[in-house]
């Protein structure tokens, strides 16, 4: 299974989120569980937001990519709403690819209820301001860089319900 699992994860790293080109569903941390039984693959995924309009497209793209593997007979993809996705699940590669796409990764040490900000993905300046918490999708906000004067999007920070950051 280990070799098959490695092959499956390698393929999942090539399936981009349709709303975030160049950022894979794997690097967004959406893959919750993967099982192989007699060449049938079952994948449980966690949506970034429950109402995400791209879930059907993601499901189709993941299934199509996995079924391209020679030994895979079929692939079943299901979204689990039993588990919570958090921005902590985004891999370092995912964060780098977000920046390449002009989207700032979420802040590392977000405290719920407090205002947050991130560095500009274009010039890395910390002199940014929140223009609109509501961005083009449910998972992004619009900020403005006061140094390079570019507006940009940022992933909204999401932590587990009831989770608390340690202070200090």
Automatic annotation (TrEMBL):
Domain MIP18 family-like: 7-74
Alphabetical list of Pfam families matching this protein: FeS_assembly_P (PF01883), Zn_ribbon_PaaD (PF23451)
Domain PaaD zinc beta ribbon, first and last residues per copy: 106-156
NCBIfam families associated with the record: PA_CoA_Oxy4
Protein name: Phenylacetate-CoA oxygenase subunit PaaJ
Gene for this chain: paaJ
